[in-house]
Structure of AI-2E family transporter:
Amino acid sequence: MIVALTLVVVLALGAWAVLPLLIEQVNGLVSSLPSYLQGLKENPVVAELDEQFEIITRITQVLSSGAWFDGLFGGILGAGVAIANILFSMFITLVLTLWFLAFLPGIKNTIYQMAPASRRPRVKYLAGEVFRRIGGYMSGLFIVVALASGSAFIFLNIIGLGQYSLALAVVVAGFAFIPLVGPTISMLIVALIAFSIKDLTAAIITIAFFLIYQQVDAYLIQPRIFQRSVNVPGPLIVLAALSGGILFGIPGALIAIPTVASALLIYQEVLVPALDRA
């Protein structure tokens, strides 16, 4: 309970320090977006596409009229209800998480009683190792997301997008939790904004940076972090993430690494000793 409450206090202090700047950058980005989109039309290729499909024209009209706000939230009242629902869901999630963590030992002991008494210590050991590896995966995932957003924040300040660097870094962090497609979506969003604010060269540099970072992240950062946190070989981590994403989409990619870690534990601790005794 002390650890959980300390974490809540730290997150609240961090939000209190960051949210004003984040809200300012988001408001500036939203208010300036119509002019940025209008600037895109000066590009011959974009202007030709817009003349044919009227994409930028329609987006500009929607943003200028405020119809996106009414359509998304149903007006001010709908926005208030949506915010209240989000806050209520966060509160309920926090309470249930604290309750689950507080009573987790008792829940686990109840489950352990379903195993024979002679094998109960072994079951407790294996279950503890599975929980430890799942926890290691979650902590490793947050490290990966922090590195991705931090790198994006530094890069955006270097290329001259400092006025929106924090807001875009938050976007990168949010999509970084989505395996496979998330980094690509955030790359396209940031590149489009770089093209609107700066020029085509800045957009190309942005795409090149994110593509290079994705390769470094997929084949160097994640394998090393998860190899230590979940005790799974690096090549197996890459193979598991790709296979899970191909077979089951985003949910499969999310649970692939902890599933492989648990399966590898069962293989090493149960199957191999049983085969050795046979």
Summary: Residues 234-277 form the longest helix (44 residues). The mean pLDDT is 76. The two ends are 47 Å apart (CA to CA). Residues 128-278 form one domain.
